[in-house]
Design goal:
mainly alpha; globular
């Protein structure tokens, strides 16, 4: 979900139990604000994606994200998260956007 592969505008949700979970999050304006913030931060880093920003955000929080990739292009996007660090204002914006989420 943090990759912005699935959005309110994208009707092609995964099948099975993930579909129900994704529908719940995508119906929540608070989650959509987080997706928008990921997009905004990605736009500040040339060639970056929301997926790379999400991974970089996790790294900045001291976690070890486990990124899944089904294609070579996705793997390259994930690796791009190692090419930049988020600025303090970007981290703060992401934290603020995520704070109200359950």
């Amino acid at each position: 979900l943090l990759t912005n592969k699935y959005t309110r505008d994208n009707a092609r949700l995964p099948k099975g139990p993930r579909k129900t979970l994704f529908q719940t999050y995508l119906a929540d304006d608070r989650f959509v604000r987080l997706q928008t913030t990921l997009d905004d931060v990605a736009a500040r880093h040339a060639g970056s994606t929301p997926a790379a920003v999400a991974l970089s955000w996790c790294r900045a929080k001291g976690t070890v994200p486990i990124a899944g990739a089904r294609t070579l292009a996705q793997a390259k996007q994930n690796l791009a998260a190692l090419d930049f660090d988020l600025a303090p204002d970007e981290l703060a914006a992401l934290d603020r956007a995520a704070d109200p989420l359950p």
